[in-house]
Amino acid sequence: MSKNNKVLDTVGEVCELCEVGTVELISTDRVLRYKGEEKELFGLEVTQCTECGDGFYTRASKSRVNRGFADLKRRVDGFLTSEALVAFRKEHKLTQEDLSGLLGMAPKTIARYETGFAIQSKQVDLMLRMLINTPSNLRWLSALTGVEVSGAWAEKGGRVVSCPGAFVPLRIPKEEFLQDRESFREEEKPYCRDAA
Ligand SMILES: [Zn+2]
Questions:
Q1: Contacts of 102 (CB under 8 A, 6+ apart)
Q2: pLDDT value of position 91
Q3: Domain 6-77 = CATH 3.10.20.860
Q4: Ligand 1 centroid, distance to 143 Cα (angstroms)
Q5: Range with the poorest average pLDDT among 84-93, 118-127, 146-155
Q6: Residue 165: its H or E element
């Protein structure tokens, strides 16, 4: 804990560890370190004993530390930060569940990346960067997966479409898949090109 500690509230409960001191809510700063790089977090709230110093971050502070450390690692390792991911998702009016579903992930995966609870793998990082670089693929993924999203393109006069031929082949035998791809090319291409 740093010397910039400030007492915010005297909670008054006796410390469970030393049974001598009392618990206070304090504000403190912390420097996060990763591979020689630093990031400082200010005003973290901690409940701490006046005698033995035993303390815990509050729930909100723990979230800030998790997210701060995850983003420090992302920056140092050259991964997409949570801010960039949130900005992209909001620009396209996608919920966390929408984006998870479009990428074939479990519903809470994007939420875990954004809160710093988890850090994306290199492979997922590249996939996210490709999507950010070419956001028209959101529409393509929507057609492919059947996940309905009210993306930003809808506001720009576009429309959310499903392109049935694009999804069906994934579920049928190879021979039919090849046949279906041919008919898909003939019949669905104008429609899907319009949607792209
Ligand atoms: Zn104590």
A1: 94, 138, 141, 142, 145, 147, 149
A2: 86
A3: yes
A4: 58
A5: 146-155
A6: helix 164-167
pLDDT tens digits, residue range 146-173? 887 665 554 444 444 444 433 333 333 3
Strand partners, 41: 30
Tokens at 150, concatenated = 């009210």
Give the Å distance between the CA of 58 and the centre of ligand 1.
Answer: 17
Distance 51 CA to ligand 1 centre (A): 5
Token pair of 141 as six digits: 């993924």
Detail the DSSP E strand segments found in the chain: 6-14, 22-34, 37-49, 55-57
CA–centroid distance, residue 22 to ligand 1 (Å): 7
The environment of the single-atom ion ligand 1, i.e. residues with CB closer than 5 A, is: 15, 17-18, 21, 49, 51-52, 54
Q: Where exactly are the structural domains of the chain?
A: 6-77
Contact present, 13 and 22 (Cβ < 8 Å): yes
pTM over 0.85: no
